[in-house]
Design a protein that fits this description.
Layout lengths: L3 E6 L5 H10 L4 E6 L11 H17 L4 E4 L2 H14 L3 E3 L5 H7 L4 E6 L1 H4 L2 H10 L4 E6 L3 H6 L6 H16 L4 E5 L7 H8 L4 E3 L2 H17 L22 E4 L5 H17 L4 H8 L2 E4 L3
Helix pairs in contact: 1-10, 1-11, 2-3, 8-9
């Protein structure tokens, strides 16, 4: 069954998760919200992030979302428990990928590159205590990295300089694996790979999160769960073409357009989806919204 998948992030970073969701099942309809007006979430309080997450969730449900993917590590850490208690809808959050990193490391040392909000969240702390008891974990707050991506500067010398400041100390302390603890950071993977020069394995949790979302959607279909559209929810951003939507609360969606196009072209060049499957995404709508 074709479902509506709602996705949100503080900015454009969540498109790294959107990419994996599209690859798994391009026949769903996707509504992606970039909360650019309040980006970045990392330095904000738990209360601020939770309030925004509630408002965005209400907006997505009003527009027919059947499942919501919190494509933001910071928002997951701050708000996922509150959201699950408050709303009768499935949520999939970003899981700290400490477990696969702990399994993969050969040196017994891993790095976690994340926002301050993620590193202080119970989800990350509990996961680390459970799966990295005998592993040395080097935690690094990637200050400035979200802003680099939001400004479209991820392929610049400036980006490489900042990335090097975070990656080299991890390697010098013996890390052979790094966890990307923010959905913006996969857009910096080429820079990280260049700096690491084969010395680090990079763990991106986005594919696993997308698989979890698709598993839940399959379960909903199997159990005959009705869609929110069946229940008469609003369709404020529904359009005649019933197309996919990428929305921003900010002043411009140019960066979102550029990143989405790069992702689609990369998928096309890799032959992972057909032209027919990709066409609805090349023609999707980009809009500005107020939440």
């Amino acid at each position: 069954m074709k479902r509506i998948v709602g996705i949100f992030d503080s900015g454009a970073g969540g498109l790294s998760v959107w990419k994996e969701l599209v690859l798994i099942n391009p026949y769903h309809r996707f509504i992606y919200i970039s909360d650019t007006a309040y980006c970045p979430y990392g330095p904000k309080s738990v209360e601020e992030i939770t309030a925004r997450s509630i408002q965005i969730t209400e907006y997505l449900i009003k527009n027919g979302a059947d499942i919501i993917v919190i494509a933001c590590n910071t928002a997951t850490a701050a708000a996922v428990d509150v959201l699950r208690k408050k709303f009768d809808i499935q949520f999939v959050g970003m899981e700290p990928a400490v477990k696969p990193a702990a399994i993969k490391t050969k040196t017994g040392v891993i790095g976690v590159l994340a926002t301050k909000g993620t590193l202080r969240g119970n989800l990350y702390l509990n996961t680390s205590q459970r799966f990295a008891k005998n592993i040395k974990v080097i935690e690094t707050v990637g200050e400035g990295l979200v802003e680099i991506v939001e400004q479209g500067l991820q392929n610049t010398p400036q980006a490489e300089e900042i990335v090097r400041q975070y990656i080299e100390p991890m390697i010098s302390q013996g890390a052979d694996t790094v966890v990307l603890g923010c959905t913006h950071y996969p857009f910096l993977s080429p820079v990280i790979e260049r700096v690491a020069n084969g010395r680090l394995n990079i763990i991106n949790p986005a594919p696993a999160v997308a698989r979890r979302a698709e598993d839940l959607l399959h379960k909903m279909d199997k159990e005959g769960e009705r869609t929110h559209r069946d229940e008469g929810e609003g369709n404020e951003i529904q359009n005649e073409k019933n197309s996919n939507v990428i929305a921003t609360t900010g002043s411009s969606y140019k960066l979102l357009q550029n990143l989405a196009l790069e992702i689609l072209n990369d998928i096309k060049e890799g032959g992972r989806l057909s032209d027919e499957e990709l066409q609805p995404f090349y023609t999707q709508e980009f809009i500005k919204i107020k939440i």
